[in-house]
Amino acid sequence: MSLIGMVGAEIVLVLFTLFFLYYSMSAFLEARSHEFAILLHLGMEKRQMNRLVFLETMIIGTGSIIVGIVFGFSFSKFFFYDCSGNFTFR
Q1: Which residue in 59, 54, 65 sits closest to 17, CA to CA?
Q2: Which one, of 13, 21, 31, 19, lies nearest residue 60 by Cα?
Q3: Angular region, 3: left φ>0, alpha ψ -120 to 50, beta rest
Q4: In CA terms, which of 8, 38, 47, 65 is 20 to 30 Å from 74?
């Protein structure tokens, strides 16, 4: 029974993540559409524009993953330590 719940939670998490990625990328591109239009007007090729957006997305994504792993590891250690009863406030 718990396996079904875990699979269901995993599916919900994946769907939420995909929706959030789509929404955030759409908002990012919409906010910068004016800048993209100016760059295209000044002579930037469409291929260069696609490469620029791809590289920016990869840099932001890589940084987010690294920060998420560091914070997730740190907070999980803190919470496991707290739950084990070894952590006391004085």
Answers
A1: 65
A2: 21
A3: alpha
A4: 8
Angle at 29 (CA atoms; ends 66, 58), nearest 5 degrees = 25
Q: Collapsing DSSP states into helix, strand and coil, what is residue 37?
A: helix
Which tens digit of pLDDT belongs to each residue from 7-17?
Answer: 999 999 999 99
Q: What share of the chain is helix, strand, coil (3-state, %, to 5)?
A: 85, 0, 15
pTM beyond 0.70, yes or no: no
Q: Which residue type occupies 69?
A: I
Angle between helices 2-31 and 33-41 (to 10 degrees): 50
Q: Which residues contact 53 (CB under 8 A, 6 or more apart)?
A: 29
Cβ 66 vs Cβ 72: under 8 Å: no
DSSP class of residue 88?
-
